[in-house]
Amino acid sequence: MILIISSQGRTLDSKPNPRFGRAPIFIRYNLESDAWVALNNPAVTEQGGAGVAASQFIIDQGVSDAISGNFGPNAYQALKTAGVLMWSFNQDYGTVQAVIDAYVHSELKQINHPG
Amino acid sequence: MKIAIASGKGGTGKTTVATSLADALASSFSINFFDCDVEAPNAHLFLNPDLKDIKPAVIPIPVINDEACSACGLCVNVCQYHALAVIQGKVLVFPQLCHGCGSCTLNCPERAISERERDIGRLYFGKTSTGISHYMGMLTVSEPMPTPIIHQLKASMQEHADITIYDSPPGASCAVVATTYDADYVLLVTEPTPFGLHDLKQMLGIVKQLNAPAGVIINRQGIGDKRVENFLAQSPYPILMTIPHRIEIAAGLASGRLLTKILPAYRHQFIALYEKIAEQVNVNQENR
């Protein structure tokens, strides 16, 4: 399984960013190998359509699960169509690593509607 | 002559000025009045035209022929609005992000894209009892894009008039440019507050790009401070009129009455305003 977590910075110590389309960084994390990489979100500076552009970007990365605070309606539709599962974290998680741990322990809420 | 009334800041009195100017001139001139504030049109509340629904405002959006589509993704790459995505070998269209530019249709190597019209609002037309031709655009709630409807509203003009008045939306964005770009004169309405000054400066940034002269009306004179006046004294833009901050004006406007009806002396002031504008437009056209 390959996760993508919207992040404020480029390391696992970084704060997670709760806005999917506008997060500056995506951490792509492979749960089987624990290998990870920080990717710049190409949509962060877009005037409009950031959710679609960010979705296209991570879908092309072959991810199975997307983890963020909120997914807008366009991102939700694109990710759902692609079969990417969406999970939501709240403000309690201080680092990307903590979000990944919460995912592994099934503590995150799955998103079944845009918002 | 086309006069656009704009402001930057919302609620400064664009519609107050636009409707009263139209009313004051209606006995001497034929008037086309365009309410270009398509997200919240309200000039009809003052001018009371017999509005009728004329036709929808539309934009063309792509329709993908999945059998012809090879999912090459070229349409996604050329779309600067991110209205398309390739997902699992199929192109997905996001209609509300589409600006109707046609790039995807033009660039598709498989000719798999056709277009259909999508309604984004309505266009209305009516006449007032004083003979003003009133054009109103109304963007459907939740639709994000006002510019196509403003262009289509202008194109729906039924006959030419001596004077065209554009009542602009607030702000200093694409919708304001779509309203003002073909104006012969831009009449800016502001209030003497820091916010009014800040947004007036933004509007003047647009005005400089247009080849039209501009002047300023200060509304609600008496509130705020002198910074707008001081700024304009150092600028090429004249203060054409001031309207005081008075409770009988606010009460009259709140009950849907024109400024020219609340205080009839304004009729002459608006006619004098038009004469000043006409003079500046003539000077500008001779200098071209």
What does this structure look like?
The complex is a heterodimer of chains A (115) and B (288). Helices cover 26% and strands 23% of the residues of chain A. Chain A has 115 residues and is an alpha/beta fold. Chain A has a 6-stranded mixed β-sheet with strand order 3-2-1-4-5-6, with helices on both faces. Chain B is α/β, with parallel strands linked by helices and 288 residues long. In chain B, a hairpin with a 2-residue loop joins strand 4 and strand 5 (90-93). In chain B, the strands form 2 sheets. In chain B, strands 3-6-7-2-8-1-9-10-11 form a 9-stranded mixed β-sheet, sandwiched between helices. Chain B has a two-stranded antiparallel sheet with strand order 4-5. Chain B has 2 domains: 2-48 and 129-287, Rossmann fold, CATH 3.40.50; 59-119, Alpha-Beta Plaits (2-Layer Sandwich). Classes of the chains: A alpha/beta (115), B alpha/beta (288).
Count of individual helical segments of chain B: 11
Fourth-tier CATH superfamily name of the largest domain in chain B? P-loop containing nucleotide triphosphate hydrolases
How many distinct domains of chain B? 2
What order do the strands of the largest sheet of chain A run in, or round the barrel if closed?
3-2-1-4-5-6
Q: Which class do the helix and strand fractions of chain A yield?
A: alpha/beta
Strand order of the largest sheet of chain B: 3-6-7-2-8-1-9-10-11
Low-pLDDT sequence parts of chain B? none
Query: Could you list the spans of chain A in which at least 5 consecutive residues all have pLDDT below 50?
Result: none
| CATH level 1 class label of chain A | Alpha Beta
The quaternary state of the protein chains shown equals heterodimer
| Percentage of residues in strands of chain A | 15-25%
Shape descriptor of chain B: elongated
Q: How many E strands of chain A?
A: 6
Span between termini of chain B: 16 Å
CATH topology of the largest domain in chain B: the name is Rossmann fold
What is the helix content of chain A?
A: 25-40%
